[in-house]
Amino acid sequence: MASQTPFHIYKSSAGSGKTYTLTTAYLKLALENPLAFRQILAVTFTNKATQEMKERIIQELKRIKNKADETQPMDRDLMGRWDLKPSELSQRAAMALTAILHDYGSFSVSTIDSFFQRVIRAFAREIDLQAKYDVELDQESIMQRIVDRLLMRVVDEPDLQRWLVDFSIHEIQKGNSWNTKKSIQDLGRKVFQEDFKKVQKEIRDFLEEPDNLKSLISHLYQQKQLVIRQAEEMKAEAHQIRKNLELEWEDFKGGSRSFVKKIDQLGNPESPIPELTELQKILSKNPEDWYTKTSKKKSAIEAAFHEGLGELFSRFEPLLKTWNTLDAMTKNLYVFGLFGYLLEELEGLKEEENMLLISEANDFLRSITAENEAPFIYEKVGNRFRHFLLDEFQDTSGFQWESFRPLLLNSLSMGKANLVVGDVKQSIYRWRGGEMRLLMDQVESETRHFGLEVKNLDTNYRSLPQVVLFNNSLFSTLSRLVAMSLTKELGSDEGELISTAYAEINQKVSLKQESKGQPGKVRLEFLEPEKPQNYSDAALEALPAMVDELMSKGYRQKDIAILVRKNDQAANIADAFMAYEIPGQEKRYEVISDEALFLHKSAVVRCLLAALKLVGNPDDGLSGNNLWVQWARAKNLLLGQEFFLHGTLPQPHSGLEKTFFERIHQLRKLPLMDLLEALVELLGLNGELSERAYLSGLKESVYDFVGKNRADLASFLAWWEQQGHKRTVKLPDTHDAIRILTIHKSKGLQFKVVLLPFLDWKVFDTAKDPIVWAPYSGDEAVPPVIMPLTVRKELLNSAFAPAYREESLLSHLDTLNMLYVAFTRAEEVIWGLVPFKEPEKRNGIGRVDDLLFFALSQQGAEGELDLETHFDSKTRILDLGSWPTWDSGVKPAVDRQEIMAWKYRPWRDSLQVRQVFGEFDETGMIAKRDFGRLVHTLIEKSRTREDFGLELEALYFEGAINKEEMVLLEKQFRTLCEVPEFNSWFDDGYRILTEQGILMPGGGRKRPDRLVFKKDTVEVVDFKTGKESQSHRDQVRGYMELIRQIEKDTAVTGFLCYLETGSIMRIS
Amino acid sequence: MDSFLKETAKTLLQSKGDLKGVKVILPNRRAGLFFIKYLSQMADKPLWMPEVITIEDLFYQLAGKKPADKLTLIYELYRVFQALTERKESFDRFFFWGEMILKDFNDLDQFLVNPEKLFTNLKEQKLLESDWSFLSPEQVKLIREFWASFEGRDRAHQEKFLKFWDILYPLYRGFNAAIESLGLAYGGRIYRDVATGLEKLKPMEEQLVFVGFNAFTTTEERLIKHLVSHFGAEIFWDLDTYYLNQPEQEAGLFFRNYQKDPILGPTFPERIPNYLQQHKATIKTYNVPLKINQANLVAGLLEQVKGRENWEETVVILPEEQLLFPLLNVLPEKINRVNVTMGYPVRQTPVYTFLEAVLELQRYAKMEDGALLFYHKPVKDLLSNVFLTEMAPEFSKQVHDELLRTNAIYFPARKLREGGEVFALVFQLFTAETIMDHLLELIRTLAARMEEKSMERTYLYQCFKQMNRLKEVFDKEIKETVSVGFFTRLFRQVFAESRLPFEGEPLEGLQLMGVLETRNLDFKRVIICSMNEGSFPPSKSMDSLVPFNLRQAFGMPVQEQNDAIYAYTFYRLLHRAEEVHLIYSTAGSQGQVGEKSRYIHQLQIEMEHSGIQKEDTLVHVPVNLTQANPIQIQKSPSILRVLERYTDSPGEGQTATSFSPSAINMYLDCRLKFFLTYIAAVEVPDEVQEAVDPAIFGNLVHQSLENLYAGFIARKGRNWVEASDIEGLMDYISPAVEKAIRAQYFLDEDAKLKLTGQLTIARDVLQKYLEGVLEQDRHTSPFEIISLEGNKKYATQLPVATRSGVKRVSLSGIIDRVDRVGTTIRLIDYKSGNDKKDFKGIPGLFDREDKSRNKAAMQTLFYGLLYEARHPENKSPLKPALFSLRDVFKEDFSPYLREVLGPGQKQEVNDFADYRDEFVGELTRILEEIMNPGEDFDQTNDLEKCRLCPFSEICSR
Ligand code: SF4
């Protein structure tokens, strides 16, 4: 399908039918011919989105297959494309659907990561990976291990040791712990990130040369000393001038609070140059402002100004800038110096454990797509893509784009259609490398020459009218506010990026939403906590009542989502709801949350973990206590002092604690999975219905663990310490419960009601110590270097101001985007809580609540909703629209039938592992008595002498016997063959049946070892080991009798052959 | 309805009457068992049983050869490879590549691909020459496409690829020649030899019957056609018109081809069954949240089965075999027999994990001054392993304790080996040369101690066998020394896969199987778990060095064939079933989401009969959480009795004790924590700390300073310190610190002090701290040392009102250092933390609600009380002082407490006496509270305090 403009970029604001657009685009390509789908790669942001996209495509195809509907815009669109009748479209859909369902592996909707990994696997040999490698996702624990390894090296490497000790002292002086491990880990983690990787080569090169770092350090410290000394000199100089003119600082305007007193602060080793406020900077330049009109010392002061004091103040600014620059560079110097080591250890670990870090995928892929032409890549991957549909493009990282670009350009150059969908306003994954500038302009400029169509999807299909209008005006106001403030703070035009990003903020209300006749509701409450409560306590307390109210309006729990910024907030909310008793009801609210429902919250889980620990170490008294305390909690009992003092459980349970100890010995021998089950049973936790989801979660953890790791108790417990606490209960989305999720995770989702309880975060949060990598080449003395800088306000007045500006700008955009995502999730109701502050205490837009406050106190622009008029400053509530009225035809949730069974039954009761014959003796040789049995088996299986050799070899390859044993067995067989009778049984001149059963009427079977059909007779042979016995003879006679019945006209002879002795006995 | 095998058996019996000389070939052995069972059920007189074999057996029989084991083959491959390339790779690194190459060779032989053509480098050639005419135009196109992708600039990756590619044909030839000279073969080779030597085949006496095949390799197809056309072999197909006649149904892919074949076509039955559409099974689909819950659901479904059941007519299919045990552990009581085909996965047994741990230990071995040391973590893991604890319980515990006590990061092997034979075997150094002998010996020794017939012993035997073989291969064939690491990987691969068969009559009871084992079997009730993409069908793993297009062009199997085989396996199960349950889970592995299997989509969308549930049943797991009740301990008589120990009348049979400042501080922090620590005396277990934890660091600080000054006093015979003494003292810092470390970790005086990682750093930091302290002391000198912590425990008593009248409650404490500067007596505490010196008045020191309560101030003021009690005669001012780690490095250091009087107003504490009365008043109040029966021990509200509390589990905090 070639078209004039093969490349489409859709800018899709929230709720603008992005999935619909993508699906339609997909179908337009896929319905071209039944196999067209194989050449389309649709890339989604998450695994979950992948599945939803797949489901959606299948759903639509199924629908169209059944009936193409001219009233549906999608169908109209598709029919128009090829000028089809509805029935023809249905037919196409049917064919495409069939093709997809039966070549499902080629139905390529995937995350960018999984696509990349396929490519990497195909190139493993070329990029020097090992044939088998594991993809490691948990980089956190990798970093921990790397730091551990690093610390182990200290003993043998004095340089490293000295470095780390200096680092410790440095930390102590800053008031931190001497234990620097955490600091190293925190900054070390950056090695996995893209912004580090971008500069990693330079950094490696710099650190490779050990003198570089040394000279950098001494240079920095020298320079700092220099600044301090200069400051001290300035101070002395100033005092000299003052003294010469017989002045005191108090004589100056402002008296004891005069800015000239700042001179006294000069030379302070921690900050030698005091900072002047904006006003002070101006004052310092005008001698008229140095004295009061009435001052008697007016002329002396003026003289002081001219004799150097005025000039001295002008030196503040440049010197401070130098200081700030030096100081910023020293801050992370120690960890920076360790980066070389960290990378080295990382390489070592990867090689030893044969793993590929997930964060490396992009690097490798970049090299692959740079090295190779697209066709060769496709050849190796085994899949040729002609069309790419990229979703959530605003969160694509620079590396990802670089990797992808060659493939996309290849497609475009062939005139194939491609599509990118995204929304700069919803770019909130910068911390993971998301690069919104790609969508904003870069992609356009890089592909424009192929022909390009940019389209803005401007209708909101998601939300009711008032919600749409509210967001339109809120975000147009907010973006203006932020842009203004940035321009003010950072200088000219800095706010422009924000304005561009939010240029097309106004969305149209969709007809469908309009026609519902419901306005929707927006409510923002400014909340003032009563002392000593803080804001989050107050918000937590308010939440359940808000849900009560929503219930009374006819909403169900699953209609409600509570969005937060941080995981711990989610956990707190979950706790609050689980503890809340709904007035007048037995039940409590239920919540679903990937962030909050930690397994370890459950009594059953805690109890079992303590039990596992105790099994691992029966002396662990603390776990003993934990076990029973949690056990009691699960059973709704309370343990009192008898337990804590004497360790006894209350009646009727007492004795259980002893039983437990008695069983430990036995329990320790069980495999992990079985051990867990046995503990559940022993502690009687299977009967409790309530915490089953948690219990299942724990079992699933063990299940996953033993699937991948060494399945013993110690390893599991260690893993749990590290990782287990992050495990949460997983519930299906259909569960009727309140959703609690982070704004990040809410991207792409929508809910009837959205509650935003914590609208209080910092707009630009430097407390999190964001790190930026900035080049420094200001000095001749040191080679140019790229350093990790902690973003602080001071950077603005340093050589690193551009880095600061960029970070500040993007952080502001992040916050604004985060708000945008949060506010645009709602279909019907937005209800937010904002901390209240006296208006006069709000200066600047430090926090989100400042932003909202100012936005609500502004008059709306032309054509926008006037938020101010809806904000009641007395009640401090903004209230817009009205509660949607419900027809009460909502079906109550049907009680699901319980179809699961939980009762434990040890599998060993019903099943046993079969004994394999064979034992080994001291020498490692097959034991004597088994040797005979071995010969027996071999003979049993071999029809001819040749066969025997073959079987013997097979046994050897299996490892059942070694070379010597093989020779021995061979010899034994040859000896036996020396007896002609015996030899004839292995002569392939005869028809020989081995292991040939005789079917008995009614289902039985008999199995003589060997039947040899000689001329007129059948010889039936049974081989034996051990002593001769009558029963052997009877057995052979039995066989003979049977054979006579089958082979009526043939004579039957029977033989018994004792293998150890070689004696052969004819049975008549 | 009869099952396919039964039907086949019936037909066979009817048509032949006698089965002598009949050879039945089935896809796998299990089908054979069922086949025989059906035959014997039909026999009315004794009959010869036909020979039942697999097609593999048939090939090996015809060739008179069996394949050699993989390790040997890969090694041979490696040798040839080494000779062909300049880039030397170690055997370790080559191994897994070799595995892949071997697999490709197998494939190309089985599919009769001409290796020379396949591995040609056509980069430069634009046209295929005439001797490529055996290829169809489509094939040629594919090959062209592949080589066309090499156009353009030379690229490093392509060069690498070609370099490797160019080796493959010589490698193939060299490898084949090499193994032939050794008399060995690999599977593909045997197949090729048979299929290309059919004319040499002797006429067969037996009547061959092929039953239930779906997909043949090229070699198989050739052989079978030959047998059909030359020796009248018969074929019974197990298929259905549903997928046969619909070209899009991948399940019918092979059948459609065979049906058109002039030789195979006629073997198809005249009437092909149409079970899938005529005989309508009920098909239900379920979605469960967790993988593990599938087991519960299966158990629930089985539970629901009413009435008496022939359980052998029910099969539960587990595409993820790991689900076996979770399922077995919840089977309903009424199921008394189960038959499991997949065997017991050895890697989950403790004995396997033990062996793996033993190997793992080696990664962390280290030689130091000729002594072998092991890293503490694996040692600890091993010591708690049941196989060692059982052997020597006392010894294990003792060593374990020693490990903790000495905080040994590395522990000497010598000590560990004292535990007995097994210990000696485990804790030795394995080298590449000795590793296998060591392991064999270990296995033998372990086995000797196990119950005969136990599963562990059976497993060990198997292990022994395999290890033996490995050793053989390495000893006799592979001269390469491999690293212990590689061996461990190999061990994992070889042994982790091994299974122990289960006991049981295969044909009775509930049937539990993996997917491929269901071939040819029919069941009335079919339950399939893990109906997830990636499990059923399993995820793509077409690991091959031959690029996709070339595979396809040369007729080697690609994904399409794989898909077809699995689809057939799935649909075949539905042929004759009456009731089908398909279960998938929404949880995937590694945080991924589970995706529902394509087969469910296919059924729900395409199969038009009403028995299929169109919407999946969502299975719900209850999710309530039991609230943690607050813990509140009332002061029962027994607790009050314990409390009496703190008074001057400790109660009969009880030893007296006293409150330290830390006890008071703990009481103020959290009353429950106080209770658990001091009254219930719950012990908190030790851990080997690689990082020196703050408490230990604190100890070291105290101890080193004590050592430093105590040494000084002993040396100089005076306790008067002059400024001039300080310089000399500096030299004693290092020994003082070292001594403290030894004491802390119970290390012998003479043992060489080997510190690791963090402790090294801690030591150096400590030394700097001591230097800092001395520097400060230089400023304050001269001063007189009155006491150091070690030599004096200070104690006093306070009268406190209790329910049985006023009692004297004991208090005590250890003061780090008491000295005199001028006339002032200083009560000094060394602090390793960041303690502040400001406090907001005495009541604030006892205010438990105050989050920034200054504990250190409380403690040093407490010392004032203690000092006074011991020296009632003292008239000098008592001045508390804190030497905290951070501050000694500051220029404006001052160790003295300051009371905050108001904003910006602070007053230095110069004499305890100024605060005494108020302090005693507050302290008495707290002590009264502790002794008061009406005041419970309850939990703090400040969760911050719980964060580092060892009892946070007890409190569910
Ligand atoms: S966890 Fe918290 S409440 Fe419990 S004892 Fe510790 S400090 Fe007290």
Main features:
heterodimer; A: 1068 residues; alpha/beta; eight-stranded mixed sheet; six-stranded parallel sheet; globular; B: 957 residues; seven-stranded parallel sheet; five-stranded mixed sheet; 38 helices; 29 strands; binds iron/sulfur cluster
Write the layout of secondary structure elements.
The complex is a heterodimer of chains A (1068) and B (957).
Chain A: E1 7-12, H1 18-30, E2 40-44, H2 47-66, H3 73-82, H4 86-102, E3 109-111, H5 112-122, E4 134-136, H6 139-153, H7 158-173, H8 181-188, H9 194-208, H10 210-244, H11 278-285, H12 298-331, H13 333-353, E5 355-357, H14 361-371, H15 374-381, E6 387-390, H16 398-413, E7 418-422, H17 436-447, E8 452-457, E9 459-460, H18 465-490, H19 496-501, E10 508-509, H20 511-514, E11 521-527, H21 535-552, E12 560-564, H22 567-579, E13 591-592, H23 603-616, H24 621-634, H25 641-646, H26 656-667, H27 672-682, H28 692-708, H29 713-722, E14 738-742, H30 743-746, E15 751-756, E16 771-776, E17 785-790, H31 801-823, E18 826-835, H32 848-856, H33 867-870, E19 871-872, E20 877-881, H34 928-941, H35 945-958, H36 963-977, H37 980-984, E21 991-994, E22 998-999, E23 1005-1006, E24 1010-1013, E25 1017-1024, H38 1030-1046, E26 1051-1058, E27 1063-1067
Parallel strand pairs in A: 1-7, 1-8, 2-3, 2-6, 4-5, 6-7, 9-10, 11-18, 12-14, 12-15, 13-14, 15-18, 25-26
Antiparallel strand pairs in A: 11-20, 16-17, 19-20, 21-24, 22-23, 24-25, 26-27
Chain B: H1 4-16, E1 22-26, H2 29-42, E2 47-48, E3 51-54, H3 55-63, H4 70-84, H5 91-110, H6 115-118, H7 137-148, H8 156-182, H9 187-196, E4 207-211, H10 218-231, E5 234-236, H11 241-244, H12 253-260, H13 275-278, E6 282-288, H14 293-304, E7 314-317, H15 324-328, E8 338-340, E9 344-345, H16 350-363, E10 365-368, E11 371-375, H17 376-383, H18 386-391, H19 393-405, E12 410-412, H20 413-416, H21 421-426, H22 435-448, H23 455-477, H24 484-496, E13 499-500, E14 510-513, E15 525-528, H25 548-553, H26 559-574, E16 579-585, H27 598-606, E17 617-618, E18 632-633, H28 637-644, H29 661-669, H30 671-679, H31 694-716, E19 720-721, H32 723-730, H33 733-744, H34 757-780, E20 783-788, E21 793-802, E22 805-814, E23 817-821, E24 824-831, E25 838-839, H35 841-845, H36 855-870, E26 878-884, E27 898-902, E28 905-908, H37 916-931, E29 937-938, H38 943-946
Parallel strand pairs in B: 1-3, 1-4, 4-5, 6-16, 6-17, 7-14, 7-15, 8-14, 15-16, 24-26, 25-27
Antiparallel strand pairs in B: 9-13, 10-11, 11-12, 18-29, 19-20, 20-23, 21-22, 23-24, 27-28
Helix pairs in contact in B: 1-2, 3-9, 4-5, 4-8, 5-9, 9-10, 16-17, 16-24, 22-23, 29-30, 31-33, 31-34, 32-34, 33-34
The structure holds iron/sulfur cluster.
The site of iron/sulfur cluster (SF4) has 12 residues of chain B, from helix 30 and helix 38.
